[in-house]
Amino acid sequence: MACAAVTAAAPSWGVRGAGSLLVERWGRGRAGRGGVPTNLRVSAPPAVLCPPARMSPRLGPTYNLRVWCVEDGEELGEKLLEEWDDPVLVPWEVTRASGKRARWRCRTCDWKWVAPVYSRTRSTSPGGCPACAGFVATETHNLALTCEESGGRLAHLPGEWNHPTKRMEDFTPASPQKVPWTCGTCEWQWNARVKSRTRSDRSTGCPACAGKVATETHNLALACEESGGRLARLPGEWNHPTKRMEDFTPNSGEKVPWRCGTCEWQWNAKIHPRTRSNHPTGCPQCYNSARAIGLSHSFYKR
Ligand SMILES: [Zn+2]
Ligand SMILES: [Zn+2]
Ligand SMILES: [Zn+2]
Predict the structure, then answer these.
(1) Which ligand lies nearest to the CA atom of residue 267 in the structure?
(2) Which of 2, 70, 124, 272 has the most neighbouring CB atoms within 10 Å?
(3) Which-ligand-closest: CA of 106?
(4) Is the separation of the CB atoms in 292 and 284 below 8 Å?
(5) Closest Cα to residue 258, out of 228, 233, 221, 223?
(6) Which of 155, 151, 146, 148 is nearest to 175 (CA)?
(7) End-to-end CA gap in the chain
(8) Other CB atoms closer than 10 Å to residue 64's CB: what's the count?
(9) Which ligand is the nearest neighbour of the Cα of 269?
(10) pTM of the model
(11) CA 122 to mean position of chain CA atoms
């Protein structure tokens, strides 16, 4: 806001008063030095009356949110005054840059929400109604509706919804909240973010069906049994003090303790490199001994 505009609208600073005094007496005033009427020198130029440049204007009858909305806010200001819905505050009790949180009511969808004043008045991307922006679940925008209207893509989600208290209508399809699900195929129960299940690109599904969790039908012990001898030595080398091989998948990246069936060396290694078909790892001590007596790498690997 230009300084002159501030002073023109600020009778409390006395500019208007001094100005009108000057005009009234212009014709009758005695000439001072250089022919300038003396009363012209009495009235200070408006610029002097401006607050210092670095001081932000104080809240007052001429500087508050309502004044800004009417004078400078243009379309946005008009909308903000219309949407102002705070039960306690009024728009002339805050400045446009105020951090105070006020209640607003969307003039498009009637949604009520609370947001700091400055977030709605800033010049670059001022905050708007979260419901219109799709950030809150409403009757016309929610997870249940999205599944219905997905053309089959998300049709399995309602059957897998396992939240004990909340409905799918209470969430948006893009919600980052973690909620419980039950697999429609294997009945596995797990927690996953709503948005991870609804996104069109790489949406997540049941981790058990995907082989990512150890189950009764998919685990390390079973994989060793069914490996046709390839992983037959692993159960004998399993050295975990508390967990069983049934608690891990063959692809697990977890480090667990092993004990060599040949040299009794104990070491920690990830499960996955030991079970993979291409260059599985083995006892490091046996590997070193084999190298020491000149056996080739490939011989040991076999
Ligand atoms: Zn709205
Ligand atoms: Zn499943
Ligand atoms: Zn060994």
Answers:
(1) 3
(2) 272
(3) 1
(4) no
(5) 233
(6) 146
(7) 81
(8) 20
(9) 3
(10) 0.60
(11) 20
